[in-house]
Design goal:
The protein has about 55 residues and is mostly helical. Helices cover about 90% and strands about 0% of the residues. It has one domain (about 1-55). Keywords: Signal.
Length: about 55
Amino acid sequence: LALGLILILFKILGVMTGEIEEVEELDFLVQQVEVVVVVRFVQLVVVVVQKVVYVHE
């Protein structure tokens, strides 16, 4: 579910940056935000997986 929401967010960001291609600085900022979101999401997944594995053990 969270992954779906993030993919939707990326599509919205993609549309926004697609409409304002001439503003390179904004595009760069959006890319940085995307990287941060991906990193946070990966960290969250790792934590959830660790908890699930711990519970099953």
